[in-house]
Amino acid sequence: MREIALKLLIITLGHCLLFTPIISNADNSKLKVMITPNMGSLKIQHNGKTIIIQRNQDPKHRIRDELTLTSRECPPHCVQPISIEGIETIGEIELLEILKRRVEGDRSVLVVDTRPEKFVAQGTIPGSINVNGDLLIEDRGANIFTIEEAYSQFGVSGDVGNWDYSNAKELVLFCFGIWCGQAPKTIKALVTLGYPKEKLKWYRGGIQAWESLGLTTIRAKNKSS
Length: 225
What we know:
Elements: H1 2-18, H2 25-28, E1 42-46, E2 49-53, E3 88-90, H3 92-103, E4 109-113, H4 117-120, E5 129-130, H5 144-154, E6 170-174, H6 182-193, E7 200-203, H7 206-212
Parallel strand pairs: 3-7, 4-5, 4-6, 6-7
Antiparallel strand pairs: 1-2
């Protein structure tokens, strides 16, 4: 019995360590660049690895060169409105709170990078998964098979005309930034398919805003969990 109790204690402690969302105040005290006055960092599990999201501590740090361009040709790189299809638009703090929910074991929420995989490989938000929006956007070649592929990760069952959204996950979608139409088009496609609007959120700033704050990115191929 004592051995069983000890094993259970070890498992419990391991679980607590795995899902500790915020580093301790002692660790926070070492950070000169905090996220908020009360948040220094967030520990995330990404593809089985522990990643610490925090702001870059180097005061001379700069955003990646490819994200500094201001005048991309429009179309397709046009400035996006503040709201898409009437769904909620969120910022970095709200996104971190949603990631924290994932850390704490809430699998009803999902942060989705809608960009093609080649761009995700250059850097994405830890804790997100990659579902290329083209799987859902009709004029990008989406069909019943690609929609089912995406929906299998979103907790949606059924088929065209008979989708079951009762277990659909709450999604936060993003792409490059305020000049990127991939996430907005993906959101519109989801709404057209019948995805509940109350289960959709848009991180409008995208990877450009995330990196402009010096927040941690990870260069890795994403899979759902």
